[in-house]
Each structure stands twice: as structure tokens, then as C-alpha cells.
């Protein structure tokens, strides 16, 4: 044990570590949200590209009178 009964410094350290932990969690939440948003945009762009290719191929078939809409 410490010779002094004044442990106020310990309480202050715990409060500081709690603030640091809360800030770290907030930063992680923002980073995860950003990563998810980027992933969604990339997936949407991929779907749009695939649909564009499919529509172009369908239009070629329609123009060749092989498919009737």
C-alpha cells in the first residue's frame, strides 16, 4: 500500500482512460461507417456496370430481330 490515503490521482487516471476509450470507440464507429459506405458505393457501381452490359447485349439482340420485346 501507499503511505498516503489520498487516491484522488487514481480516480483522475480512471476518468481519463474512460474518456480515451469513448473517443477511440467513436473514431472506430466513424471509420466502420465510412468503410461500409464505400463498399456500398463500389457494389452499386458494379451492379450498374453489369446491368449496362446486359442492356447493350439485349439491344443488339433486339436490333437483330432475335428478341421481341
Radius of gyration: 30 Å
Q: What global shape is seen?
A: rod-shaped
Contiguous helical run count:
1
> Total domains, how many?
1
Please provide the count of β strands: 0
Please describe the biggest sheet, giving its number of strands, its sense, and whether it closes into a barrel: none
Question: What is the H/E string?
Answer: H
Helicity range: over 70%
Strand content: under 5%
Note poorly predicted spans.
none
The pLDDT mean sits at 87
Determine the structural class based on helices, strands and strand pairing. mainly alpha
Account of the 3D structure:
- It is rod-shaped and about 95 Å long.
- The relative contact order is 0.05.
- The protein has one helix spanning 8-63.
- The chain is mainly α and 69 residues long.
- It contains one helix and no strands.
- The protein has one domain (1-62).
- 81% of the residues lie in helices and 0% in strands.
- The mean pLDDT is 87.
Essential attributes:
69 residues; 81% helix; rod-shaped
What can be said about this structure in brief?
The protein is an all-alpha fold. Helices cover 81% and strands 0% of the residues. It has one helix at 8-63.
List the helices and strands and how they pair.
Elements: H1 8-63
Amino acid at each position: 500500500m501507499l503511505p498516503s490515503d489520498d487516491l484522488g490521482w487514481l480516480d483522475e487516471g480512471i476518468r481519463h482512460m474512460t474518456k480515451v476509450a469513448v473517443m477511440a470507440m467513436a473514431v472506430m464507429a466513424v471509420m466502420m461507417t465510412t468503410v461500409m459506405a464505400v463498399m456500398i458505393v463500389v457494389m452499386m457501381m458494379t451492379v450498374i456496370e453489369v446491368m449496362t452490359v446486359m442492356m447493350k447485349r439485349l439491344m443488339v439482340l433486339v436490333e437483330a430481330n432475335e428478341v421481341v420485346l
